[in-house]
Amino acid sequence: MVTAITKKIGLFLVIFVFANLSLWATSININEIKKFYICGDYNEVIRLCLDRLKQKTDDETLYFIALSFSRLGNYPYARTYFRTLLKKFKDSHYHKKSLVKLVDTYFLEGNLIKAESLYKSIIEKYPRIDYKPLIYLRLAQIYAKKGEWDKMHKYINIIKTNYGNSFENQLAQRLEKRGDFFTIQVGAFSKKINALKFARELRSKYPVYVIREKEGELDLYKVRIGKYKDRDTAEDIFKKLLEEGYPARIYP
Questions:
Q1: Is the pTM here over 0.70, yes or no?
Q2: d(Cα 134, Cα 154) in Å, to the nearest integer?
């Protein structure tokens, strides 16, 4: 008799524990997920979102897990979750935002042809979309990367004329200020003297120069090489610098 009661109590406790674990999984708050996202802990966001998605599929969870995969550079996974959101939640507040962010994954991946086509199709399909400044900035950046300077200026001017108070306008002006050429950055220093010393080491072999740019509250002195009108020339110098062990990067 006692043994039977004990077994029943044990079974009840097991059921109670599992029920509470299930309740805990469903109680993962989206605000907690957002908090980790703001802090830049994208792996934790993904973990929490996956637990939440086991219990229910909602648009916010899909959006933040997709964003986090994108932030970590896992663009195929990001696209999977963005597409799920777009398919299941067509009336969601996150729908058009997810559409733009989905195309962003192609841009960030370096697939400029596909990104260009998809950004333009969004503008055509949703002429009143709220994310036009970002789309126009992306198009300007794409044409800068391709060396199509006239098209770059076209979109920069659209941003300056119609969205002067936007954050995208600040980035567009920075892009315009760089000039209509390709250059190769080989270093960035918080102290000017270190940048100048590094530039002197390169001056015998390359047309090197130093610029100052503000990154948040910090002034950075960036060491760059050349001002090339065509990307092919910049690519040749870029490859040579990599072979010599320099951490080179082509701009724009």
A1: yes
A2: 14
